[in-house]
Amino acid sequence: MQFDEMGNMDGKVLFLLPGTACDYQTNFASVLDRLGEKYHLVCVNYDGFDGSGSVFPDMITVTEKIERYIKEHFDGRIDGAIGSSLGSSFVGQLIQRKNIHIDHGIFGSPDLDQSGKFSAWLQSKLVVPLLTSFTKSEKKRMKTREKLKGFFEMNDETADRFMACFSKFSPESIKNEYYTDLLTWLDDDIHVEHTKAHFIYATKMGEKYLNRYKQHFRDPDIRAFHMQHEQWLFGGEQYTAPVLSAIDEFMETPV
Predict the structure, then answer these.
(1) pLDDT tens digits, residue range 75-121?
(2) Helical (H) or strand (E) element with 245
(3) pLDDT of 15 above 90
(4) What is the Cα–Cα distance from 33 to 54, expressed in whole angstroms?
(5) In the chain, N or C: fewer CB atoms in 10 Å?
(6) Residue 134 has pLDDT above 70, yes or no
(7) CA separation for the pair 14, 106 (Å, rounded)
(8) CB–CB of 132/171 below 8 Å?
(9) In 118-133, which positions are buried (b, 16+ CB within 10 angstroms) versus exposed (e)?
């Protein structure tokens, strides 16, 4: 596990938790500097994605390591945590388990998919080989780049950086991450005193995800943005700026 602290060390503590098959350097590249102007950032790379040669074990083992770091370095309490996509599963677990305290849990347009063991196994068998095949040939690389540019409005540099994650990390780590995320369930109607759950809702994902947010958390603070999944991190300033403003508002909300 890798925990890099940076930014405004006198600011509120904000953890950044990346999504599937990603490190924080790629996932949050477009917003690190601006978030760091205001917040004391703790940027996390999970086992298997930290360059150490380790393998991602499972979601709960990694959650326990994050909890341990918060206890040892911040006396068990932090101001906020942003989860990008799968990273939001960690935010949910950290809140739900109540082993540490987060004032503001910020969920970056997650799908919050959950399933049983057979379905998780089948999905991982189908999806993981697809993810890890994106860059196996120049033809596939070019085709994937064009899809990312069209869907997320990424530029060439961002698309290439994003695709590189699927080739530099081991298929075993990606499989373990994808599979155990589906098996790591959130309760319904989660409510922790003095914790607020905030959701960045990408409306182009569809209303079923909005309903999941309301299902899992009591009275969540949901902000709707007309964009694709996590497009604020990859799609340009027209998406990034409004979400960054919302994050500042989230972090100032009384709990």
Answers:
(1) 999 999 999 999 999 999 999 999 999 999 999 999 999 999 999 99
(2) helix 237-252
(3) yes
(4) 28
(5) C
(6) no
(7) 10
(8) yes
(9) eebeeebeeebeebbe
For the chain, the residue count is: 255
The H-or-E segment that residue 80 falls in is strand 77-84
Contact 100, 67 (CB under 8 A): yes
Any residues with CB less than 8 A from the CB of 93 and at least 6 apart, and which? Answer: 59, 60, 63, 184, 186
Query: pTM for the complete prediction?
Result: 0.94
Dihedral, CA of residue 71, residue 74, residue 75 and residue 76, to nearest 10: -50
Strand duo 101-108 + 2-7: pairing: unpaired
Angle between helix axes 156-168 and 117-132 (nearest 10 degrees) is 120
Helix or strand or coil: residue 149? helix
- How far, in Å, CA of 8 to CA of 6, rounded? 7
